[in-house]
Amino acid sequence: MQPKQIVILGSTGSIGTQALEVVRAFPDKLDVFAISGNSNVDLLTRQALEFEPPYVVATTKSAYQTLSAALESTGSTVLFGQEGLCDVAVMAEVDVVLAALVGFAGLRSTLAALEEGKVVAVANKEALVAAGHLVEDILLRRGGRVVPVDSEHSAIHQCLVGEPQNSVESIILTASGGPFRDRPIEKFSSIRIEDALAHPNWSMGSKISIDSATMMNKGLEVIEAHWLFHLPPEKIDVVVHRQSIIHSMVNFVDGSTKAQLGVPDMKVPIQYALSYPNRWASANARLDWSTIPTLDFEPIDNQRFPCLGLAYEALRQGGSLPAVLNAANEYAVSAFLQGAIHYTAIPSVIEQAMLRHDIVRSPSLDDLIEIDTWARSISEQKRQGTH
Ligand code: NAD
Ligand code: MG
């Protein structure tokens, strides 16, 4: 078998670098066709020199210039910006596009790849949250495939192999509870950036780490699950499971439940998405059952995590509201990481943007780009008004 030709969009991030570890472990099965990065030009250059992909995409002007000079005498062609991401995602040689960049910036290239009928391994949940209906429409028309990378959705996908859609009663996403699961709510006002970045179980990029602290990550995952598994919000539940051993579960109509378990290591779902529909033998860590006497579960504390309720509300109302939720959240997280707003302001910034939005039914890509920009600017105005 020829190795699969893969494109890794966002190769310098947490998911991207772990995906390249998977490639290193399976050199005869995976070949890197293209990689991309935003600002970490040194790492992107090293990756290009190691994997020698035909294409490298830089999404900032300065990275593009530095990279073009550094790779001048190599076989890699350097492309620029959103067009570059879309160009590599649709090339004829490509078998799988791994969407591992963060935020709404990942949407266009995912849609472009799916229009071309490609397999897209989706880590970039924000694209599905903002434009799940467009993804669904393209899949119906063009017959491509989306394979989830997110550990919860990979777990559900694995539980559903061989099961008809009408056998599913509901799904349960597990949540670790993040760094503030035990912090008294009255002490939330003293949360610092470094406290929010310190996730107890996973090491991830900064945006998803903050989303995990606020539980918006689980909210985005509920919306992601809605589009991936065609279930209404009332059939998607969330439970706190501190150990992150059960990655998610499916309840079936006969009263049976299936779960997928494993060591919390993103390389496992990344590898599964790249190997699907096969499984490849690997040296990934195994669970040692003799050291796990119990598995613990708790209900979600909605007062502690208001962002989860906002995400359910956005999904229930639908249309363009999830895109507003996502954009306002991206704005609020970035403002928090820059020290411009306090942790406790994140949900109120998002709620304000949602309240001010007139929902557009079935928004086009152009509508979504406009709405994304609007939601960020209304959130910025709200911050200035209250700061
Ligand atoms: P990260 O911040 O570590 O990496 C993000 C990548 O995207 C980098 O390569 C960066 O260069 C690129 N990027 C950032 N902004 C960009 C822009 N405007 N245009 C083009 N490229 C840009 O993030 P991550 O933790 O790897 O997460 C990536 C995605 O995967 C997110 O959607 C996240 O929710 C999802 N995810 C991550 C994990 C995890 O363990 N890290 C788990 C599940 C899902
Ligand atoms: Mg997840």
Bound ligands, each once: nicotinamide-adenine-dinucleotide, magnesium ion
C-alpha Rg, in Å?
Answer: 20 Å
Judging from the principal axes of the Cα atoms, what is the shape? globular
Overall number of structural domains: 2
Mean pLDDT: 97
Largest sheet: 7 strands, parallel
Summarize the structure.
With 387 residues, the chain is of the alpha/beta class. The chain has helices spanning 14-25, 41-51, 61-70, 81-89, 107-115, 125-142, 151-160, 193-197, 206-214, 216-229, 267-275, 306-317, 321-337, 346-356, 365-386; strands spanning 4-9, 30-37, 55-58, 77-80, 96-99, 119-122, 145-148, 168-175, 236-240, 246-252, 257-261.
How are the secondary structure elements laid out?
Elements (H helix, E strand, L loop, with lengths): L3 E6 L4 H12 L4 E8 L3 H11 L3 E4 L2 H10 L6 E4 H9 L6 E4 L7 H9 L3 E4 L2 H18 L2 E4 L2 H10 L7 E8 L17 H5 L8 H9 L1 H14 L6 E5 L5 E7 L4 E5 L5 H9 L30 H12 L3 H17 L8 H11 L8 H22 L1
Parallel strand pairs: 1-2, 1-5, 2-3, 3-4, 5-6, 6-7, 8-9
Antiparallel strand pairs: 8-10, 10-11
The structure holds nicotinamide-adenine-dinucleotide (NAD) and magnesium ion.
What does this structure look like?
- A seven-stranded parallel beta sheet has the order 4-3-2-1-5-6-7, with helices on both faces. Strands 9-8-10-11 form a four-stranded mixed beta sheet, with helices on one face.
- The longest helix is centred in the last third of the chain and has 22 residues, at 365-386.
- It has helices spanning 14-25, 41-51, 61-70, 81-89, 107-115, 125-142, 151-160, 193-197, 206-214, 216-229, 267-275, 306-317, 321-337, 346-356, 365-386, and strands at residues 4-9, 30-37, 55-58, 77-80, 96-99, 119-122, 145-148, 168-175, 236-240, 246-252, 257-261.
- The relative contact order is 0.11.
- The model has no long low-confidence stretch (mean pLDDT 97).
- It folds into two domains: 4-148, NAD(P)-binding Rossmann-like Domain (Rossmann fold), CATH 3.40.50; 154-265 and 273-385, Orthogonal Bundle (Rna Polymerase Sigma Factor, Chain: A), CATH 1.10.1740.
- The protein contains 15 helices and eleven strands.
- Helix 5 (107-115) links the parallel strand 5 and strand 6 (119-122).
- By secondary structure, it is α/β, with parallel strands linked by helices.
- The protein binds nicotinamide-adenine-dinucleotide and magnesium ion.
- Residues 150-152, 221 line the site of magnesium ion.
